[in-house]
């Protein structure tokens, strides 16, 4: 019983760690897509931000400057996406694909040229990373059964970006539903005509939403290379941007759903590793790959309309042109 | 009203514009190379020599080009129907399964050409099957095909790993792959063809699937511009309202278009699986499905353009390896950057140069302009 | 007026031209038993029109969209506190003009004066600040938002919504009391009936402090009761000194509610009249214009058996508004049946439903005695096989693929005809040869079957469609606006061709907003108004009689 509970805490802690980049990235996508801009370039933004953050942290020795660089990178890539899809009215999907390619190529090219480790950045010392923060009384509470491990093993001992990710969710909810900006973002993703006739610039509004997207993608990338790991590794985003996209769809573009979905997907990821080779009573051996593919399968089923209906923002993917 | 397509002369639309896009992509990549302290001109020299300097280089270039022809065609067929098939990667993976089934079944008692025919059909069928569900969901349920095909890429990856590790892998073998196909399950190299031109193929895996790709090029050209169904695909892709007017069935056209697109992607598996490795292994598609997007955009979805773009990307892939060897400071991934930039400029920013080109080259209306009698 | 302070903070520091008038408390409206028309038609004008400077003055407004001259040198003056109607057919340029006033489009030249001061309206924000509000024909509402959120959008009153919400609620309660506009602020737009959605649009404008309210075709989506309610509201707005500009193509509304009316035709304001001093007949004539009477040589029709029969057809549009209401008629072999009507009265939807492009919600379509529909759904391909050809009204969006070569468009819809096929392949030679023949026969210029269709002029594009459909030798031909945008020479040719087709014993259903075209070609005329067929005038009925029927007053006039 004791060990089962300890196991559970461990799985939950892994879930939290694995879901943090998903939460940041899915929220990033949420700002973009709620404003009517499809963004499949999340993967590339996360990857490039991870690289910039690790590079700057290496050079300056400061995790915070690394974070700043990560955010700046995310924003710049978002602006590129905005230029293509808002100003030039290009295809948003193609622009996203292009950003993923550019990020994938440029990070390795630059990393290799600068550090000569085949695209890796040098190992960061702990002083240049976001390391675990022990919350007050963690050690004191630890011996208490149930509550102790929960507090010291799960709630305490995470790095600052983890806490920020979990704060970003209610914050995004608040921005979206309680502020002027949020109201306008939600409106422009549904009916840009309504925003335009209300005397608000559709272009500038969408750019601002994309900047929010870039900031959050920057957090996600920084988490990967400066918090979760201690260096940038080539292709280290490893499809997380796409899982986040799936999570966003699965969450029906709602912030609180995003949290739950990302935790679910993170949990599936965490368990798939632990379940390897174990035989569940009555079911037999569960293929790890099935659990790994479950986020995607669930998303497709949702998209097909078999479990509820995921209705994307109505104006999504369509450049705004005043109708004639 | 959107910018009419028909206002640029063909040679500008299909020649100058893609050239300009590629030139800009190269120029920016050159700046990046300069930025990391290397000489871009020198880099291009290494790249070109590595790709085209000897028989082996050329053969490697064409080997890569073969992959991209298949995936470029796959993306282009979907583009013609107004659909975005971003799921080439998964369709290739499944196509590989089809190829492996055919080869493992027949390689011990059939000559390679019989196996090749069966494998081609199987690759097409498996790839098409993997495109079927996203296609059907798009046609019947309006689920966004971009999202579903991306999801199917990951599902395919998981499925194939599972099959390779748990089902297909011969007992006692450690690595997750099939047994090596025997001679009846391998496509012959085209060393003879190369010799014709006085070139030595060396160790390059340039093989018969290149010829199959060329057949596919002709077949796609015929399909799109010479068959009734191709006409219907193009109508649906260019003007959906006119397609309804013309009685073109939406669901059927979407599904069949995607089946063809997925099938073409699946056929790509012939090249690496039967033509090179002689076995099915993990991660063999290696991103070729995505390269197809760049190829189709640059080739403006025309089969001839796709062949040219594929060869260019073949040069990049082969030359990139040589470049990385000769100038270690420039890693091979510079080609991924170039691809990304090509996709950006030929795809997402395609309207950026167009107005300037229209101003320069626009065909003057040959007839009198419509009478401006009334506001219609 | 304590509640006045709150609602307007969004644009509180409005520009100098902004004129604020407090709400005047609601005055009881005289008995509302009969139809609204009866109540208001002869109501004396008691609005404060004494102010000499007009609320809005447009001077020489000109606007082109590419080759289309949408507004030509428009001069228009709207008196303060009046209801000013702008009437004209669809495409006359009314909406463009109002969109310019609202800052949605920019005029190529011309001036806008608001309260006598020139104002450069560069965007909607400027227009809103100047006290101009607009209710668009297609509502500019966010459908999954609440009423409250929609009203707030753009005038949130601060970074946070909380304060604004309170203010909007208070203001809505005030407006509700004053106008009887009962709309639940927390209702979601997409769950509201169309009439209420429109009220939200009006609320939006009022909340933004609109002194001039533009309504673009406001009754198109309303039931008669809702329309009555709307008119009562407009009268109340006027009573409080607001200025209303009403865009419509419905004469009845103009007569019922407006003080002044301007008639637009083909991008120009052709006349402005005091409503009390004009008649429906005059306006109808001004709207349609006296056109060169087209003479078409044709003998007596020799009607044969019924080819096309439409029974109790009802068609709804995407918003669920009934566009065609229980329509029945027949077209016989060897006759041309013309459907006359002011654009927007359901003719387009009728045509599309018969051609299988739009789903009918009830009713039947029968060709040569056989029903062709399955659950209201008609397959256009099947119809063509049965000998029904269709020249759609909108050739750009429906009849042609502009990016295709001419010869490819010459087979659109007939791509499965064995004549053009060799097995699964297109017989390119046959197709191009066929195209060349049609080009010669219809004098399509330039005579190049390989030219991109987008590069042909409008008239020649129309001929491509006509050649394709007529040369099919169909048993029944549906033609929508056959000569729209076509030059005179081509018109004559097209008309002759249609008559020849009739004389060959084909059934032809003609829809046109050009009354002359209908009169000169048709053997029988059906007049459509508000989705129903309101009458079948004599073949030789004069223009005025048909014109009145088109305005929906045929019956009344006859009485």
Give a verbal description of the structure.
The complex is a heterotrimer of chains A (324), B (376) and C (559). With 324 residues, chain A is mainly alpha-helical. Helices cover 69% and strands 1% of the residues of chain A. Chain A contains 13 helices and two strands. Chain A is globular and about 65 Å long. The mean pLDDT of chain A is 91. By secondary structure, chain B is an all-alpha fold. Chain B has 16 helices and no strands. In chain C, α15 packs parallel to α16. The two termini of chain C are 50 Å apart. The chains are: A mainly alpha (324), B mainly alpha (376), C alpha/beta (559).
Q: What's the CATH C level of the domain at 64-314 in chain B?
A: Mainly Alpha
Q: Architecture of the domain at 64-314 in chain B, according to CATH?
A: Orthogonal Bundle
* CATH architecture classification name of the largest domain in chain C: 3-Layer(aba) Sandwich
Radius of gyration of chain B: 22 Å
- Give the count of structural domains of chain C: 2
**What is the average of the pLDDT values of chain B?**
89
Q: Widest sheet of chain C: strand order?
A: 6-7-8-3-9-10
Main β-sheet description of chain B: none
Unreliable segments of 5+ consecutive residues of chain B: 1-6, 364-376
What's the rounded overall pLDDT mean of chain C? 83
Largest interface: A-B, 54 and 52 residues
The CATH first-level class of the largest domain in chain C comes to: Alpha Beta
Measure the end-to-end span of chain B.
Answer: 13 Å
CATH level-3 fold name of the largest domain in chain C: Rossmann fold
Distance between the termini of chain C: 50 Å
> What is the CATH H-level superfamily of the largest domain in chain C?
P-loop containing nucleotide triphosphate hydrolases
Helix content of chain B: over 70%
Q: How many individual β-strands of chain B?
A: 0
Order of helices and strands of chain B: HHHHHHHHHHHHHHHH
Observed structural traits:
heterotrimer; B: 376 residues; mainly alpha; ABC transporter involved in vitamin B12 uptake, BtuC; globular; C: 559 residues; alpha/beta; Rossmann fold; 2 domains; six-stranded mixed sheet; elongated
């Amino acid at each position: 019983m004791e060990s089962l509970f300890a196991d559970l805490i461990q799985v939950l802690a892994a879930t939290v760690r694995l879901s943090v980049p998903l939460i940041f990235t899915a929220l990033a996508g949420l700002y973009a897509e709620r404003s009517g801009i499809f963004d499949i370039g999340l993967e590339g933004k996360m990857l490039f931000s991870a690289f910039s953050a690790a590079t700057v942290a290496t050079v300056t020795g400061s995790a915070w400057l690394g974070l700043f660089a990560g955010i700046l990178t995310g924003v710049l890539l978002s602006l590129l996406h905005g230029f293509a899809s808002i100003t030039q009215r290009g295809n948003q999907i193609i622009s996203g694909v292009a950003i993923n390619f550019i990020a994938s190529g440029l990070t390795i090219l630059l990393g290799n040229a600068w550090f000569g480790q085949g695209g890796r950045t040098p190992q960061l010392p702990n002083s240049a990373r976001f390391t675990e923060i022990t919350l007050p009384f963690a050690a004191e509470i630890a011996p208490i059964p149930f509550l102790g491990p929960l507090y010291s093993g799960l709630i305490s001992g995470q790095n600052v970006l983890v806490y920020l990710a979990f704060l970003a969710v209610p914050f995004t909810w608040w921005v979206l539903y309680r502020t002027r900006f949020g109201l306008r973002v939600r409106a422009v993703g549904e009916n840009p005509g309504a925003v335009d006739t209300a005397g608000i610039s559709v272009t500038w509004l969408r750019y601002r939403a994309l900047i929010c997207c870039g900031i959050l993608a920057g957090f996600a990338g920084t988490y990967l290379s400066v918090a979760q790991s201690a260096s940038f590794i080539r292709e280290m985003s490893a499809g997380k941007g796409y899982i986040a996209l799936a999570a966003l769809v699965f969450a029906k573009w709602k912030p609180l759903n995003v949290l739950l979905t990302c935790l679910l997907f993170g949990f599936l990821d965490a368990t798939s590793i632990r379940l390897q080779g174990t035989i569940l009573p009555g079911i037999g051996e569960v293929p790890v790959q099935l659990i790994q593919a479950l986020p995607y399968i669930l998303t497709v089923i949702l998209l097909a309309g078999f479990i509820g209906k995921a209705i994307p923002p109505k104006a999504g993917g369509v450049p705004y042109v005043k109708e004639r | 009203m959107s910018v009419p397509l028909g206002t640029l002369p063909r040679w500008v639309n299909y020649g100058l514009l893609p050239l300009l896009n590629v030139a800009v992509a190269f120029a920016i990549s050159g700046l990046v190379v300069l930025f990391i302290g290397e000489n871009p001109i020198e880099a291009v020299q290494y790249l070109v020599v590595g790709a085209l300097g000897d028989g082996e280089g050329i053969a490697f270039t064409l080997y890569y080009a073969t992959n991209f022809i298949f995936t470029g065609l796959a993306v282009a067929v979907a583009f013609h129907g107004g659909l975005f098939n971003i799921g080439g990667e998964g369709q290739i993976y499944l196509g590989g399964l089809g190829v492996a089934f055919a080869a493992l079944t027949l390689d011990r008692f059939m000559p390679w050409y019989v196996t090749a025919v069966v494998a081609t059909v199987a690759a097409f069928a498996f790839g098409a099957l993997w495109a079927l569900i996203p296609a059907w969901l798009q046609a019947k349920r309006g689920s966004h095909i971009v999202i579903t095909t991306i999801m199917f890429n990951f599902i395919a990856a998981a499925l194939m790993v599972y099959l390779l590790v748990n089902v297909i892998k011969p007992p006692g073998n450690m690595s997750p792959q099939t047994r090596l196909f025997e001679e009846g399950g391998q496509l012959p190299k085209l060393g003879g063809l190369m010799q014709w031109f006085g070139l030595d193929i060396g160790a390059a895996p340039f093989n018969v699937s290149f010829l199959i790709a060329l057949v596919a090029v002709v077949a796609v050209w015929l399909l799109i511009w010479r068959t009734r169904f191709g006409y219907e695909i193009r109508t649906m892709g260019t003007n959906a309202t006119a397609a309804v007017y013309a009685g073109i069935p939406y669901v059927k056209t979407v599904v069949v278009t995607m089946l063809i697109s997925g099938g073409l992607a699946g056929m790509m598996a012939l090249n690496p699986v039967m033509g090179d490795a002689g076995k099915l292994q993990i991660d063999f598609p290696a991103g070729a499905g995505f390269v197809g997007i760049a190829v189709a955009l640059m080739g403006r979805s025309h089969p001839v353009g796709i062949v040219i773009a594929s060869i260019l990307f073949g040069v990049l892939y082969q030359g990139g390896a040589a470049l990385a060897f000769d100038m270690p400071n420039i890693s091979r991934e510079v080609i991924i950057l170039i691809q990304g930039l090509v996709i950006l400029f030929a795809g997402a920013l395609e309207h950026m140069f167009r107005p300037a080109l229209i101003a320069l080259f626009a065909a003057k209306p040959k007839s009198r302009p419509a009478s401006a009698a009334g506001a219609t | 007026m304590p509640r006045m302070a709150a609602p307007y903070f969004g644009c509180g520091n409005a520009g100098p031209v902004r004129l604020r008038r407090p709400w005047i408390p609601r005055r009881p409206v005289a008995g509302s038993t009969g139809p609204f028309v009866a109540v208001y038609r002869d109501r004396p004008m008691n609005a404060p029109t004494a102010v000499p400077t007009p609320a809005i003055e447009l001077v020489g407004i000109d606007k082109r969209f590419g080759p289309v001259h949408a507004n030509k040198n428009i001069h228009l003056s709207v008196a303060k506190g009046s209801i000013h109607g702008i009437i004209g057919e669809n495409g006359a340029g009314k909406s463009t003009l109002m969109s310019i006033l609202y800052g949605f489009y920019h005029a190529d030249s011309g001036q806008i004066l608001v309260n006598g001061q020139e104002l450069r309206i560069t965007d909607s924000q400027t227009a809103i600040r100047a006290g101009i509000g607009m209710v668009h024909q297609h509502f500019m509402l966010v459908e999954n938002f609440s009423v409250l959120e929609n009203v707030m959008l753009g005038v949130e009153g601060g970074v946070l919504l909380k304060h604004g919400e309170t203010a909007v609620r208070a203001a809505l309660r005030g407006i509700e009391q004053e106008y009887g506009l009962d709309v639940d602020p927390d209702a979601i737009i997409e769950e509201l009936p169309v009439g209420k959605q429109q009220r939200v649009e009006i609320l939006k404008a009022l909340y933004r402090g609109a002194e001039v309210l533009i309504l673009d075709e406001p009754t198109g989506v309303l039931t008669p009761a809702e329309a009555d309610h709307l008119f009562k509201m407009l009268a109340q707005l006027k009573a409080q000194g607001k200025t209303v500009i009403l865009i419509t193509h419905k004469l009845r509304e103009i007569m019922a509610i407006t003080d002044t009316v301007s008639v637009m035709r083909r991008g120009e304001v052709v006349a402005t009249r005091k409503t009390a001093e004009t008649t429906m007949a005059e306006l109808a004539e001004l709207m349609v214009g006296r056109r060169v009477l087209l003479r078409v040589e044709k003998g007596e029709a020799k009607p044969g058996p019924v080819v096309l029969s439409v029974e109790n057809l009802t068609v709804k549009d995407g918003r669920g508004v009934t566009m065609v209401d229980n329509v029945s008629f027949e077209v016989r072999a060897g006759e041309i049946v013309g459907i006359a009507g002011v654009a927007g009265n359901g003719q387009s939807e009728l045509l599309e439903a018969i051609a299988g492009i739009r789903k009918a919600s009830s009713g039947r379509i029968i060709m040569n005695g056989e029903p062709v529909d399955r659950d209201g759904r008609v397959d256009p391909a099947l119809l063509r096989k049965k000998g029904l050809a269709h020249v759609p009204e909108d050739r750009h969006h429906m009849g042609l693929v502009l990016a295709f070569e001419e010869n490819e468009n010459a087979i659109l819809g007939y791509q499965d005809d064995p004549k053009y096929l060799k097995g699964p392949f297109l017989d390119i030679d046959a197709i191009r040869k066929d195209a060349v023949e049609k080009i010669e026969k219809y004098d399509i210029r330039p005579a190049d079957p390989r030219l991109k269709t987008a590069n042909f002029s409008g008239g020649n594009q129309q001929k491509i469609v006509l050649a394709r459909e007529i040369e099919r030798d169909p048993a029944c031909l549906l033609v929508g606006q056959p000569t729209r945008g076509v030059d005179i020479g081509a018109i004559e040719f097209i008309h002759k061709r249609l008559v020849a087709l009739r004389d060959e014993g084909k059934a032809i259903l003609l829809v046109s907003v050009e009354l002359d075209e209908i009169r000169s070609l048709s053997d029988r005329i059906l007049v459509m108004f508000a989705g129903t067929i309101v009458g079948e005038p004599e073949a030789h009925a004069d223009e005025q009689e048909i014109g009145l029927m088109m305005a929906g007053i045929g019956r009344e006039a006859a009485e």
